[in-house]
Amino acid sequence: MALTRRPRKTPLWLPYLQGIKETKKGVFEFVYNGGEETAKVEEILSIMIYGETDTPIDTRILAKLCGRGVPIVIHRRNLPRPIFITAGPRADPDDTLSAQLIRRSSVRATTHVARQILKAKMASMAYLVDPQPLPNYADVNRLRNIEAVHAKKYWDAWFTRLGQAEWHRRSKNPAAEALDAVSKFLAGITLRWITYHNLSPYHGFLHTPTDYPTLVYDLLEPYRGLADVVVLQTLLASDDEKLWIPRSIAAIKGWLNVQTYVPLTRQIVTNQELLHGVVLSLKYYLLGRQRVFHIPLPGKPKGGRPAKVEFRLYGRHAGKTDFWKVAHRVSNEPYKVDISSLQVVDPPEPNQSSTAEELDCTPRVPTEVAARATPVVATTASGRAKKATPALPSDYCIIDVETTGVVANHDSIIELAALRIRGGKESAAFQTLVKANTPLNEVIRTLTGLTDDDLKRDGIGIGAALTSFAQFIGSDLLLGHNVGFDLRFINQALYNAAMVQLVAPTIDTRSVARRMLPGRKSYRLQDLAADLGIAPSTAHRALADCRTTYALVQVLYSLNKTEKPG
Q1: By Cβ atoms counted within 10 A, which residue in 22, 225, 311, 505 is the most buried?
Q2: 93: which residues sit within 8 A by CB, 6+ positions away?
Q3: What are the tens digits of pLDDT across the range 304-363?
């Protein structure tokens, strides 16, 4: 039995930021070198701005985001430490901050927290080196010395496994830069929960300096090994060191959404929830509501009475369902990185000259697709390369969804459609209506022409719809107009149904239109179609919109004489 639905938040990674604007109240559009994201503020978990950028950011935008609890992390290769921007403290009837400072002054409590963190950290790294024994009554300084010895063994083994035994974690090398980027990305998520639960990020227990957010890094330690495995898999599968950072971030985002079983709470949750759970456990220990600081970790179902904790994570609970069957399955399925499916781009630093070769890694197109097509590279009047337009392969699927609203973790899908393209031509189509849990409002009825009776009569369950949809699209590259919107709804529905998340290479025709037709007031599908002379279709019906998108693709790519579709 799942908890009552709540907004599911997503961490954003914005490489080489080009702009942030509020399109309507509480809805923000982020444009970066490689794509764009549109999200409601309540959907955003944290933001990491990566790489050099000359783009000015409106401080009013920052104030609105931070004021709603969204932490912002700014990180570049040449920054010794990231910049963290967060909102001020909120009202806290528990006075958690005072409890944190009082407990931190206790040698016993500090040692207990540090010991639990180290035990969990070394357990997560046991895939490479055995944990070091932690002597009873060792103080924090002794524990840190033991950690240093263990860390040296671990990183020697890690870089040896990578095939770069001469590299080191603290030296300047591409692998260390990828690890640093992932660490800062996860730090932003952890910072969100630390500040949300009224803890001070600057007062750690294992790391004690107060000139940087030590508690953030304390609470990341139990999951270091889990994240390092993901990065290691990514780097081993990628020959191009220039793509190690964006591919590692993309892989860790995928890992955050993977389900895992947590023996501590007997729940099936996503890995992202672990970063929230460790903050909750520390808070209740500091407040005296838990005798032990228990750290939620992935594990396998086993008998016995679980430890007593004061919190529950957002996920499925044990009950008279298929829970234990699913728990055994997810606990025996290690996360494996599929390098071909990672949606990434790592453009050159701004203000540096670019070549066509440097730009020959088109965003959101996997290796096997890119091998069959060359990206379009336009140039400015000075001859400098512009951002590449994704090349169009001959085989792909166009997708579209119709929904009851615009918020993926609140509204639902009412229609799913896809158009299979082979050799540049339509070869098959998929369309289904989906039964809705709530009556359609007047806006949606007017927009789509659908009624509640239509969905009751012709709709099928969301689980069956998603299964048929996944079978239809297979492993194709997915193309859509504002395709990120469609994928957010699809993956939220998959998450709600306890199904595997959809990870696929994509091309967004709205982004392509922005590049090829700059300066327009509207990039809505129907507006573009009307202006470009595309025959009108039934607007806001999924299959009709797929066919309009297909026609738009033909026009957009024919505008560039150096590239033809198919």
Answers
A1: 505
A2: none
A3: 787 888 888 877 666 656 677 777 777 776 666 554 444 444 433 333 332 222 222 222
